[in-house]
Design goal:
By secondary structure, the protein is α/β, with parallel strands linked by helices. Helices cover 44% and strands 18% of the residues. It has three domains: 118 residues, 2-Layer Sandwich (Gyrase A, domain 2); 129 residues, Four Helix Bundle (Hemerythrin (Met), subunit A), CATH 1.20.120; 147 residues, Rossmann fold (3-Layer(aba) Sandwich).
Length: 441
């Protein structure tokens, strides 16, 4: 695959001031040179400098552009690369891409530039995945976590665990394979201690799985309650604009409405749901059924009630009780209720609600410090397998079993840890990871 020269438009589809086309592969600079006319021949262009010129198709000038060349291995992919910055019209960009493809390049697959960077050793797999996290980050905290991972912070921690397991395995196998060399083995207690330390580091990373999911996917937050308690009003207030229809008629919201907001660095995926009540209307009943399904899958439920009316529900400690319409006065039934009091009409109490939501999320273990290293679901599966194998090795050593059995389990743990950073042979796995990338990256 890496013998091909690939090309793609690296900027989003549509009109803009500037569009960028990228080429990577053995003939990247040469192919760019066949369409670029500037002051110098392309092979003579200084790398990593923008050069003004024109893209031509025969005698036709397509656009005035800036061309940058990057010589291997000092490029993003580790290969010869060229980037053409042209005017951001849809037609001109497509014409230049078509010209590059006609001159010998092929269309890049989604994520293929980053995949080549990984295959050429420019980054490990955790860093490659961080590229997409960086692109998709919706909050400052998610952005910081992705940037830390892109710099190799997660990869460094994984490498530290791998080196620890590798040293332990090497010592154990040397003792197994060359007993006549009189290699002094670690005592069983010392080996168990080293293995326990490695498992502790694995456990620390595993504890960041929830943080990783929150930062990448957001906290699924359902606004739940009876009709006319102010659910849509709360959604609009949190978003800062009129997203949902607000009307005094019960059952106005028939379907769920989803939007994402940034709450102090944490993405909240807000879901406004249909009011829960007994209904003979088939459409409303379907909306209520969807509400209940969303509640089951929610990370956080904001249970909204009308505080000016008698209590008709029992507070659930797993849900955040929100007492709305306090501007109308609070009914005595809610006097001792442990919840957040607010008025969607006046906005009073919104800061207290933000504090309560933040505390609920942070109470699940999400901290600003830990969020700089947050594993994803693939990392979690690999580390769980590594821990399972390391535990089996620990039991074999502690139980006085054959060292060969412990070595087998240690090798399996080592392989599982290696898979996190990308020491893998599975093309299917790499295909799944990089297929989620945008075209041109």
């Amino acid at each position: 695959m890496n013998q091909d020269t690939i090309a793609a438009i690296a900027t989003p589809f549509g009109e803009g001031a500037i569009a960028i086309l990228r080429l990577s592969g053995p003939e990247a600079v040469a192919i760019a040179g066949t369409v670029f006319r500037g002051g110098k021949r392309t092979p003579e262009l200084q790398p990593r400098v923008q050069h003004f010129g024109r893209v031509v198709d025969g005698a036709t000038v397509l656009d005035e552009v800036l061309l940058s060349v990057f010589r291997a291995p000092a490029s993003y992919t580790g290969e010869e690369m060229a980037e053409i910055a042209c005017h951001g019209g849809i037609l001109v960009t497509r014409r230049i891409l078509s010209l590059l493809l006609n001159r010998g390049a092929r269309m890049a697959h989604p994520g293929e530039f980053t995949q080549r960077a990984f295959l050429n050793g420019k980054m490990d797999l955790t860093q490659a995945e961080a590229v997409m996290d960086l692109i998709q980050a919706q909050t400052e905290l998610a952005l910081r976590a992705a940037a830390e991972q892109l710099e190799g912070r997660l990869g460094a921690r994984v490498l530290e665990i791998r080196e620890s397991l590798l040293g332990l395995l090497a010592h154990l196998e040397a003792h197994i394979d060359f007993p006549e060399e009189d290699i002094e083995p670690d005592t069983t207690a010392a080996m168990l201690e080293r293995l326990t330390a490695a498992r502790t580091k694995i456990a620390i990373l595993l504890r960041t799985a929830d943080q990783g999911r929150v930062l990448r996917e957001g906290v699924r937050t359902v606004i739940y309650g009876e009709p006319n308690v102010g659910k849509s009003s709360l959604l609009n207030l949190l978003l800062g604009y009129e997203r949902a229809i607000v009307h005094e008629a019960p059952g106005t919201t028939r379907d769920t409405i989803e939007e994402t907001i940034d709450l102090r660095g944490i993405p909240l995926r807000l879901v406004d749901t249909a009011g829960v009540r007994e209904s003979s209307d088939a459409v409303e009943r379907e909306g209520i059924a969807r509400t209940l399904r969303h509640v089951e899958r929610a990370d956080l439920v904001l249970h909204l009630v009308d505080a000016s009316r008698p209590a008709t529900v029992v507070a659930d400690p797993d849900r955040l009780l929100v007492l709305n319409k306090t501007d109308l006065g609070e009914h005595s039934d809610w006097q001792n209720a442990d919840g957040v009091r607010l008025s969607c009409l006046t906005g009073q109490g919104m800061d207290a609600l933000a504090d309560a939501i933040f505390d609920r999320v942070m109470g699940r273990g999400l901290t600003m410090a830990d969020a700089t290293v947050a594993i994803n679901a693939r990392h979690q599966a690999c580390l769980q397998e590594a821990d399972r194998c390391a535990e089996a090795a620990w039991k074999a050593l502690a139980g006085g079993l054959s060292p060969e059995l412990a070595a087998i389990d240690l090798r399996a743990a080592l392989d599982a840890v290696g898979d996190v950073a990308g020491r893998v042979d599975s093309e299917a796995l790499l295909g799944r990871i990089f297929s989620t990338f945008c075209l041109g990256k």
